[in-house]
Design brief:
Elements: E1 4-6, E2 9-10, E3 16-17, H1 18-21, E4 32-34, E5 41-45, E6 52-56, E7 65-67, H2 80-83, E8 87-88, E9 94-95, E10 105-110, E11 114-118, E12 122-132, E13 138-144, E14 151-152, E15 156-158, E16 162-168, E17 176-186, E18 189-200, E19 205-211, E20 215-217, E21 225-231, E22 235-247, E23 254-259, E24 265-270, E25 279-285, E26 295-303, E27 310-323, H3 324-332
Parallel strand pairs: 2-8, 11-18
Antiparallel strand pairs: 1-5, 3-4, 4-9, 5-6, 6-7, 10-12, 12-16, 13-15, 13-17, 14-16, 17-18, 19-27, 20-27, 21-26, 22-25, 22-27, 23-24, 23-26
Length: 333
């Protein structure tokens, strides 16, 4: 008696079920689907004639194919010697007669979750319904809104179709942020998507300014150091965002302030953060709303403890405002 273990290489032209390739009297304990681009090992036990053959794959070590005789293999015309060095090719095997379990459902998605417009303009949110695992049917749409006039393009859509949310505004529409909740449902399935509309006053323009000149921060300095951004526009400040990038190995040493052209001061960072390093932060500031933005804006930095040296890498201002003339005209109405 001899134990034989032979790797058989035999290309299949197309996907097939191995069990169907066997003679009708083959004894098969388990069956797998065989696709292209995978290899199976043929193991035989018994005499050289072979009393049992086994096809196995590493993905199914406990569930091999067992054949009663080598004569029942599709390449039975070949002798055992000629099979050495060949292979059976196929893809990842899967248990026969077992299909993946599907979970049909849908989702909502809008291309932009936040839009910004000036009062008097119309905002349009482009949205769609996405289907999963073959979901189908008609979705009922609804909208929750605190702003009059907002409307959906459809009340019902086939799953997978796009739709829009349109929000018209007037010059007198109150400035601020508005949230809209979109709802779609079919039977027991319900999905929601929230979007935000930021409404600015009529005529508001936005500008961005940046100072990328690096400045070494004096360790335990006696006075504050300054970095400047000059705003060349006469604007009444409506919104202001500051981006700050500071490299420092002990950020609680630092105190940082923003000073407007009129001399008003807003503290951005006041020795907090413990032993953490660096400051990379966005600051939304309302302190200067209504001020004339024209002139030099100064960033003041002071290191108030010894032992650590850092540097200001860069800082930016994103300023929203309208001309002083427009502001004066509205004030007189």
């Amino acid at each position: 008696m001899a134990n034989l273990s032979t790797l058989i290489r035999y290309p299949l032209i197309a996907t097939a079920t191995l069990a169907c390739m066997l003679a009708s009297d083959a004894h098969v304990n388990a069956a797998h689907n065989m696709d292209m681009n995978d290899s199976y090992a043929l193991h035989t036990t018994g005499s050289s004639i072979g009393s049992q053959w086994q096809l196995s794959n590493p993905l199914f070590p406990n569930n091999p194919l067992r054949l009663a005789s080598r004569t029942q293999l599709p390449y039975a015309a070949k002798s055992i010697d000629t099979l050495v060095g060949e292979s059976i090719s196929g893809g990842t095997p899967t248990p026969a007669n077992k299909e993946p379990k599907l979970d049909p459902q849908f989702n909502l998605h809008c291309a932009s979750s936040v839009l910004t417009i000036n009062a008097g303009e119309t905002a349009t949110f482009n949205c769609n319904s996405r289907i999963v695992d073959g979901f189908s049917g008609i979705l009922r749409l609804s909208l929750a809104s605190s702003l009059p006039g907002a409307k959906l393009s459809h009340r019902e859509i086939n799953a997978g179709m796009p739709f829009t949310l349109e929000v018209p505004t007037k010059n007198k529409t109150q400035w601020g942020d508005y949230v809209f909740t979109l709802t779609a449902n079919k039977d027991s399935q319900l999905k929601q998507q929230a979007v935000t509309l930021k409404i600015l006053p009529p005529g508001v323009q936005t500008y961005s300014f940046n100072n990328a000149s690096e400045m070494t921060i004096v360790d335990n300095g006696a006075t504050a150091q300054e970095s400047e951004i000059f705003v060349p526009h006469h604007l009444s400040t409506f919104s202001l965002e500051v981006e700050l990038a500071v490299r420092h190995s002990w950020r609680s040493d630092l105190s940082i302030q923003l000073v407007s052209p009129s001399g008003n001061v807003h503290t951005l960072h006041n020795r907090d953060g413990g032993s953490g390093n660096d400051i990379n932060q966005h600051y939304q500031i309302e302190t200067f709303n209504g001020e004339n933005a024209y002139g030099p804006w100064k960033l003041r930095i002071i290191d108030k403890a010894p032992g650590n040296i850092g540097e200001l890498r860069q800082w930016s201002m994103h300023l929203g405002g309208f001309s002083n003339r427009q502001h004066a005209q509205r004030s007189l109405r």
